């Protein structure tokens, strides 16, 4: 149990005692009610912190107690309004991916267990296995990269090169922390370029794609200010031009490996030390250093040398400075990496993204399969960003399971890198001993985090979940068959239409349905209209636009008039 | 092992012996090669029949033998061309769903095991469980209906009524039979109307939606002919009007229960007898009767009485005849069902779908949760249909795992019904003892079958997987940075563009890329064009439309000219 859980439980116990005492003391009802409300909030917080369910339907269901009415730990439903926002987000992303020639493939949600084995380092323990029900041993996919590599290895004759995107769910049996948006089931949204290509060209295009996606999503239509680097004394404060929503941190595995060697990290400690460096985003340098020295047995002098390098970040200027560094010059791996970075900056300028890119030596992603450039897009620590992030998730009151998602930290909103050897691990080599390998580079957009930002940027009640354009309304006698017939006429003309499933509905509930579902227009009929062969059309969002009862239109002109108003 | 597997293995053994003998006899190489080719085909067939993998990359991978390079049994990948067809299919379906006011929700791919328990009768054994890794017991969802009901029960205060659609993967640990398109992972595509509404109105609209979807998908733009009923002597031969792709079989659970009672089926045998009737689509009446009498212990006279009813199908005429049937009249359940059917036919006429609907007493779906109308859309047994279904799956040669999907049977392409008690099973009742139940009716489109029909209706090589509009080509010196800069210009103007990731590509490979990816236009540059400040634009699909080298356009007018040609 974490401290905050323990503290929550403590508070709940104490508040419970207090309420009981208030009741004994016959305190005023509103005083007690207020305390009970606080208690409920605390319990909701605890439920979210521990990933446990809230009681369904406000605890009313007596009979349902036999079921635990919830989704599994670390998973959640998305309701109709949330899905409208998510689908718009996915469509925007797909639009950018397709602009760059992207095609999509689909792979199963689970893979043979052995396909996933040995790909994720320490994180392999987070893989979900399926029960062995007398068949193959299978696991839910952990990301979309390994399945893609497996696909390429299986289809290498057809796909020597491909730009593929994939939007799909992945699974990690992590301790869920909804406060951090960390779930056990979540979407990934990847674009990868596979194939042996001109060095650094696809790498730069991938970063350009990430910039385009984040700009199109308008995640950060803010003023960009300063980012304070999380370790003491070093402030990262490059101003990024107006409208730039994010900056892409770039590093290169070879530079990092070279740097570690130069600093005196023994070969066998490079991976563990690299994973310690990866924590620089969350921990102060002192703690990272402590992990290196105390836990991983690194010579303190080597740790200090690392400290001097990994505080470095900047643009081409830094790159040029490092190219002059005598110690790095003596290291082939570091020099190869720096030369690649030079090439990268050249293409970044052609792609007009150089001002969004910061060369950052602290960046070291945890996954084992990266072999070249690695990058990460992060929201900058601006006042505007923090203001949006501090807002409550809309619809929260209605969806208690979100109650504690109100705190989305600044952090990674896209990440990726080059993995040149993963396909080869699956594909092996051909008869002539030539490897069937296919080099790859890709990016994954952090759509769950982006989603929670987008939700905060709009009013929950203004999200239109349906796309209905016209509601068919009866005044007076119900006219069910007549309303249905009009709906048929509209559907057959490509107009999205609904009507109330009731033989004799009153007028008000029909108007209410239009309001609730944000339906722009209505077709209104009554006995008189039917007799005259007309209908009335009414603007339901701007109710003063038409006469109170709507504008009369001959039935034969109804479809044309609706289409005109809808801009079809 | 099935007969056909055994027979395949037998053939393989015999052919192997034959080939060895031919080699011993020093037969001509082409004779041996021919036999080897046949042997390979047999092995591929066997692999598909048993769901076993084919060797990857044509068996070339020596080192890869340590991995079994395949997807799990009963699952498959979809490549870029297949996905282009699938996404277009899903978009078409969503379009219809949204026309009827549908909204979408998302639920996790796995649910708590107890949520799924007791919902699927005998088929519960097909549920995939996740391994118990020290958490909750979870299972992969078996359909989208039970998760939807669970969602409604959890959110009943917000969603007393909703029209929701959901397109997502479901999982069944069935014996995969790719020949029948039966997979362990497949998509379902559901539309459901929840809420207490006017009787039979949502039911009829759901059927209207199914008809609209199947028409929009153009699954059956054929001449409709005769459907031969699978049991002897009875031919179902209602001609359905021109263009009608499918007929929707309708039955009503209450009619069926009433009919069974009238026929003398004891209460406790109604469910098992119902599931026997469900096999009428696959087995002749004699075998169904045998199952009823021998296995399920039904009185033979009762079985014969059932036989007389379940051969009945037709339109309103049949309905009216049954309403006069003295035995049915005496049965309250049957009469209630028949009266609902009367109402259904009334609304079906308003919805203009009555000619597509056949009242069919043999229809009995297997799932336990249906409580009212049940229906199933089936392809009719027409010459045209059979011609398309008999075609090979395109791209087959390239994707060996599809080798045996060449036989798609006539069968259900959409199905559904009313389930009024499922939500109540989760929701329980409120404090006043009033049930929190929400009645529902829905349809599930058989998208996997539809997909395999759509694939057969087009040429594999004509499927455009990407959406790229312009390819930027260099003549002569490579001009990589210049090509990249033009691509940036196009992307920033919303034009989908690619170029070759190569410093100095030859002209022909760039033209080949346009042909392969069906890219309509190219922008061509060389040293001369750069010097003059122009580009050349060329129609790549109709190469004679422009001069051989393309039409010269000033750089400043490039975007406008491309947009004009692309119809932006």
TrEMBL record, chains A, B:
Q: Which GO terms describe its biological process?
A: histidyl-tRNA aminoacylation; mitochondrial translation
> Which SMART domains does this UniProt record tie to the protein?
WHEP-TRS
Gene that encodes it: HTS1_2
Q: Name one Pfam family in it.
A: tRNA-synt_His
- PANTHER family the UniProt entry points to: HISTIDINE--TRNA LIGASE, HISTIDYL-TRNA SYNTHETASE
Q: Which family does it belong to?
A: Belongs to the class-II aminoacyl-tRNA synthetase family.
Per UniProt, which keywords does this protein have? Aminoacyl-tRNA synthetase, ATP-binding, Cytoplasm, Ligase, Nucleotide-binding, Protein biosynthesis
Reactions it catalyzes: tRNA(His) + L-histidine + ATP = L-histidyl-tRNA(His) + AMP + diphosphate + H(+)
The taxonomic lineage of its organism, from the top, reads:
Eukaryota, Fungi, Fungi incertae sedis, Zoopagomycota, Kickxellomycotina
Q: Where is the WHEP-TRS domain?
A: 4-60
Protein known as: histidine--tRNA ligase
Q: Where is the Aminoacyl-transfer RNA synthetases class-II family profile domain?
A: 74-455
Top-level EC class as recorded in UniProt: ligase
Please provide, alphabetically and separated by semicolons, the GO molecular function terms listed in this UniProt record.
ATP binding; histidine-tRNA ligase activity; RNA binding
């Amino acid at each position: 149990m974490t401290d905050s859980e323990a503290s929550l439980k403590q508070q709940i116990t104490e508040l419970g005692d207090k309420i009981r005492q208030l009741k004994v003391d016959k305190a005023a009802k509103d005083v007690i009610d207020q305390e009970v409300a606080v208690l409920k909030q605390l319990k909701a917080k605890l439920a979210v912190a521990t990933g446990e369910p809230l009681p369904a339907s406000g605890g009313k269901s007596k009979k349902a107690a036999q079921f635990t009415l919830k989704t599994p730990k670390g998973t959640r439903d998305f309701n109709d309004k949330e899905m409208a926002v998510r689908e718009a987000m996915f469509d925007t992303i797909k639009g950018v991916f397709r602009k760059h020639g992207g095609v999509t493939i689909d792979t199963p949600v689970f893979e043979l267990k052995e396909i996933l084995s040995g790909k994720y380092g320490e994180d392999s323990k987070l893989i979900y296995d399926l029960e062995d029900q007398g068949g193959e041993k299978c696991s839910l996919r952990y990301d979309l990269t390994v399945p893609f590599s497996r696909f390429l290895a299986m289809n290498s004759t057809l796909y020597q090169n491909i730009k593929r995107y994939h939007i799909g769910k992945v699974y990690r049996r992590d301790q869920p922390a909804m406060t951090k948006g960390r779930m056990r089931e979540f979407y990934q949204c990847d674009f990868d370029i596979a194939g042996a290509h001109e060095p650094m060209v696809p790498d730069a295009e991938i970063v350009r794609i990430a910039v385009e996606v984040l700009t199109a999503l308008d995640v950060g239509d803010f003023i960009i200010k300063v980012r304070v680097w999380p370790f003491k004394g070093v402030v990262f404060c490059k101003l990024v031009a107006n409208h730039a929503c994010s900056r892409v941190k770039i590093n290169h595995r070879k530079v990092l490996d070279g740097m570690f060697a130069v600093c005196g990290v023994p070969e066998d400690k490079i991976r563990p030390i690299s994973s310690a460096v990866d924590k620089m985003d969350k921990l102060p340098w002192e703690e990272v250093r402590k992990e290196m020295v105390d836990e991983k047995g690194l010579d303190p002098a080597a740790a200090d040398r690392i400290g001097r390098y990994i505080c470095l970040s900047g643009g081409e200027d830094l790159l040029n400075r490092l190219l002059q560094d005598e110690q790095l010059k003596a290291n082939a791996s570091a020099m190869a990496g720096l030369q690649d970075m030079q090439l990268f900056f050249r293409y970044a300028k052609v792609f007009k993204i150089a001002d969004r890119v910061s060369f950052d030596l602290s960046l070291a992603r945890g996954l084992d399969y990266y072999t070249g450039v690695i990058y990460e897009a992060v929201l900058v620590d601006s006042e505007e960003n923090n203001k949006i992030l501090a807002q409550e998730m809309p619809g929260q009151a209605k969806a208690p399971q979100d109650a504690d998602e109100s705190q989305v930290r600044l952090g990674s909103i896209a990440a990726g890198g080059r993995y040149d050897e993963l396909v080869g691990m699956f594909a092996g080599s051909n008869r002539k001993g030539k490897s069937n390998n296919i080099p790859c580079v890709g990016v994954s957009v952090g759509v769950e985090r982006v989603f929670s930002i987008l939700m905060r940027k709009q009013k929950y009640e203004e999200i239109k979940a349906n796309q209905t354009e016209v509601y068919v309304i009866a005044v007076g006698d119900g006219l069910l068959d007549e309303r249905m017939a009009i709906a048929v006429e509209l559907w057959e003309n490509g107009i999205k239409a609904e009507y109330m499933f009731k033989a004799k509905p009153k007028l008000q509930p029909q108007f209410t349905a239009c309001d609730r579902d944000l339906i722009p227009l209505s077709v209104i009929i009554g006995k008189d209209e039917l007799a005259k062969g007309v209908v009335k059309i009414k603007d339901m969002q701007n109710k003063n636009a038409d006469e109170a009862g709507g504008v009369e239109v001959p039935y034969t002109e109804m479809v044309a008039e609706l289409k005109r108003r809808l801009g079809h």
